[in-house]
Design brief:
Layout (H helix, E strand, L loop, with lengths): L9 H13 L8 H7 L4 H29 L1 H21 L3 H18 L2 H13 L5 H30 L4 H17 L17 H21 L1 H20 L3 H11 L8 H25 L1 H7 L3 H24 L3 H29 L5 H30 L1 H19 L17
Length: 429
Amino acid sequence: MSAVRIPKDRMYHKFRLYGFLKNLRFFDPFIVLFFREMGLSFLEIGALFSIREIATNLLEVPTGVVADAFGRRKAMLASFSSYILSFLIFYAAPGFWTYALAMVFFAFGETFRSGTHKAMILEYLRLKGIEHLKVHYYGHTRAGSQLGSALAALVAAGLVFYSGSYRIVFLASVIPYILGLFLFLTYPKELDGEIVRVTGAWREKFAERIRLTGRGFISMFRDPHTLKGLLHSAAFDGVFKATKDYLQPILKSQALALPLLLSLSPDERTALLVGILYFFLHLGTSFASQNAGRLQERMRSLPAAVNSTYLLGMGLLLLAGLGAQFRIYGLAIACFVGLYLLQNLRRPMMVGYLADVIPQRMMASGLSVESQLKTIALAGLAPLVGFLADAVGVGYALAIVAAGAQFLWIFLRVTSPGKVEAVQGGVGG
């Protein structure tokens, strides 16, 4: 089998740089530990994640109107500006309700960004006539994101180690996002896609945009391949995002159990272990993303790859929960590492599958629908996992959610894709 050649031009490196800067979120390896340091319960932490996801869902349509009216590049500028404001609030104003406000600004960033940059990549591939490389190409760009996460883990560990607090990581995260603002200014105008201009007053434009978007959404939900694909992706990613950060308290338990570096404080030992593990974890996920296309080629079909990775991922989460519950922390950590690697292998495949079942003209809207479904799933799962973690322990909470997701696979198993017809007058990319 001949190797696939990816054209590594200027935009290829810009797309990778975007992912690298976006994932320099120094707070990611410590977000749950940060909230615990601030005195929040697991239920309150889950509630904050839920607030973020509900706000993301509610803001999806209005921010989509702005993005469609002004173009994808300006939407990305608005996204990173909202993220920066969120980080500053987390750093400067402790408290549950101020954190809730910060989550709302974070949601603004997510909604302006969700699906937008992927649509820009797919638009670029269409213009270059290399759409058939979408899984390989997106895997390469996602690999750049994971390299950013790997570096962020080491930098964050150093910041926490020397400052003695998790708060500093939010202030540090502002710097790469400012650099991201300058990067978007260099993107070419043709990546803005088709800008649909609706005549009339602003309120009429808003209502018309909702109507056109709704027609596009309905057309996608009418096709069983598209519907299952969207729900399948939302279920797996919703479970992953609702549980992935519980690796942090497991790592803290492991750090305190190890008879190493006893001269250091518990927080210093935790920072070192978390930083080192997340560094190697994200190096692994970067490699996994870059080789997603190769794995897909070895599978019987793209739907088979998507289905098998779903079941494997939920099995790993189940074992991670049981390992944590019975204090076999090594098993729990290893299973979480496997789950992270699997998520980054399957995400490019999932994008490729959705690209096969969603019409090109509606790709941005289709990916936006996927994002909305994920936020709904996570909004419900995050408080549930937090409640279960407070009530029966982190381990059992993870195991219960994993078992439920495995049962849902019976209804979410995808089959060979079929294209849906674009609605006449539907939303452009």
